[in-house]
Write a structure and sequence with these properties.
alpha/beta; 2,3-Dihydroxybiphenyl 1,2-Dioxygenase, domain 1; four-stranded mixed β-sheet; 22% helix; globular
């Protein structure tokens, strides 16, 4: 058993793809036309960090309720955790691309960590080796 995908509600597919690929270093695994539960057209967009088991489904918001949750999916808490091989290189790369870090890098028992916001305001932990 394993976790295959997590969903992140996004405002627009292409801007989300750009962030997840160019800034976070994910690869586009799938970007194909699909239908939602009501038979309306949508895109099925999955990005995945290289070598990761779990991917991220980029789900474009539909309707007022979903739009209101963009950037607030985790009620202000860190809800996603991105582990990288080279913490400080990733931190530098992301900072140079305008990512807002809410904490400076620090060492914890589980490794290096810094909290950042994605392009919509969801909080993530950037994690590296101890």
């Amino acid at each position: 058993m394993g976790l295959e995908l997590v969903s992140v509600i996004v405002r627009e597919y292409d801007e989300a793809i750009e962030f997840f690929v160019d800034v976070l270093g994910c690869v586009v695994e799938d970007d194909s036309p699909s239908l939602d539960g009501d038979g309306q057209p949508k895109r099925w967009v999955v990005v995945r960090p290289p070598g990761a088991g779990c991917g991220i489904l980029l789900a474009q918001a539909r309707g007022d309720e979903q739009v209101a949750l963009i950037g607030r999916q985790f009620a202000g808490r860190v809800g996603l955790f991105l582990r990288v091989d080279n913490f400080f290189a990733s931190y530098k790369h992301m900072t140079e691309r305008g990512v807002e870090f809410l904490t400076a890098p620090r060492a914890e028992s589980y490794g290096q960590v810094a909290v950042f916001k994605d392009l919509y305001g969801n909080k993530w932990d950037l994690l590296g080796a101890a």
